[in-house]
Amino acid sequence: MSMIEFKNVQKYYGDFHALHDVNLKIDQGETVVLIGPSGSGKSTLIRTVNGLEEIEDGQLLVDGFDLHDPKTDMNKIRKNVGMVFQHFNLYNNKTALENIMLAPRLVLGREEGENKRIAMELLEKVGLADKANNMPSALSGGQKQRIAIARSLAMKPKALLFDEPTSALDPEMIGDVLDVMRDIAKDSSMTLLVVTHEMGFAKAVADRVIFMADGRILEDNSTAAFFDNPTEPRAKKFLSQVERH
Amino acid sequence: MSMIEFKDVQKYYGDFHALHDINLSIDAGETVVLIGPSGSGKSTLIRTINGLEEIEEGQLLVDGFDLHDPKTDMNKIRKNVGMVFQHFNLYNNKSVLENIMLAPRLVLKRDEAENKKIALELLDQVGLADKANNMPSALSGGQKQRVAIARSLAMKPKAILFDEPTSALDPEMIGDVLDVMRDIAKDSEMTLLVVTHEMSFAKAVADRVIFMADGRILEDSSTEVFFENPTEPRAKKFLSQVAHH
Amino acid sequence: MSGFFDAFTGANLGYLMGGLGITIGVSVISIILSLIFGSIVGVVLFERFPFFSSFVGTLNNIVRNLPLLLIIFFTYFALPQFGFHLPIFWSTVVAMSVFQSAMLAEIVRGGLEAVDVGQFEGARANGLTNMQTMIHIVLPQAYKKMIPPIISQMISLVKDTSLASGIVLAELTYRGQIVYAQNTNFIVPVLIFMTVVYFLLNYGLSLVAKWFDSRLA
Question: Does this model's pTM top 0.90?
Answer without folding.
Answer: no
